[in-house]
Amino acid sequence: MSDSYRPQPEDKFTFGLWTVGNVGRDPFGEPVRAPFSPVEIVRMLADVGAYGVNFHDNDLVPIDATARERDEIVRSFKEALDERGLKAPMATTNLFTDPAFRDGAFTANDPAVRAYAIHKTMRAMDLGVECGATTYVFWGGREGTESDATKSPVDALAWMREALNFLCEYAVDQGYDLRFALEPKPNEPRGDIYFPTVGSMLGFIGTLDRPDMVGLNPEVAHEHMAGLNFTHAVAQAWDAGKLFHIDLNDQNPGRYDQDFRFAAHNLKPAFFLVKLLEEVGYDGPRHFDAHAYRTEDAEGVRDFARGCMRSYLILKEKAQAFAQDEAIQGLLAEAQQASAEFPSYAGGYSRQAAEALREHSFDRGQLASRGLAYEKIDQLLTDLLLGVR
Prior knowledge:
The protein is α/β, with parallel strands linked by helices. Helix content is 47%, strand content 9%.
């Protein structure tokens, strides 16, 4: 394996306890791998060159653990992190596995369930901060419906807002250095999940009491499930100053949530995503929220983790090559050149600029006749990705 594709700490590659710890269970099959303990996962990730490990509360501490068991688990986990030099930059709450959340957590019809969800999240935030997390993710896997006859979406939105406002104030009151990152998904496990896309989450964030504390954790698979362009969604989040975290994996559009190894299926979309993240200077964790194939044993899980990071670094190298390719960049520059003289509006609005632009006579035939060489640009990219350029 080339040293140029060996992960470095500055890459900030992270995995969840639930990702490399996945035992291969699916809706039609029992586990195929023995579970790894959190300490074993830390050691495995350190061995393959990861920067850090993230967790749900119950990935680390079982939901029915006693206070003494909880403290011992956390102590051992933190010691392993220190021993291997790994970080735990992100934490989240499991509000979807326990049967109590079968109708949702923050949006459940039962107010006692909603209160329990906030109670559980406060304790999980305490745990995350104790382990060093500075980003706290909210994925509402059960926040939705199978039938809209059962719940008002207007009420559900209000309940979600109420919960996040409460938890923001809790973080501030506790003096926690936390940013909240909301993770959209269109469906699964609920038939329809509230806030299905990056755009819907961005709209919701603006209605919160502390929108400055709240951003996004977009995931490749979740936008691809709906047939959307993930790179465009990430660009929108970045442009809004809300790209607080990101989940990398792969997914075929229109399927259930597959969580494949990053770039395992869709190389061009993965390339464009890496290109965007590197061009804009995203410096947060690059978190792989993916699972090894069910066919794999423990060594196969290590291969999966290595593959996620290696693919990102290869695509990063390809993005640099794209930026330095004279033919590609020359064609892009030509495409951006004006095909005719026209009054400039680039300096912003003024009455004079508006009058000049309004009165200018454009030759539509000339504008429409120009070829842009996009076929050539795209084929040059294909050549580059296939290694023949």
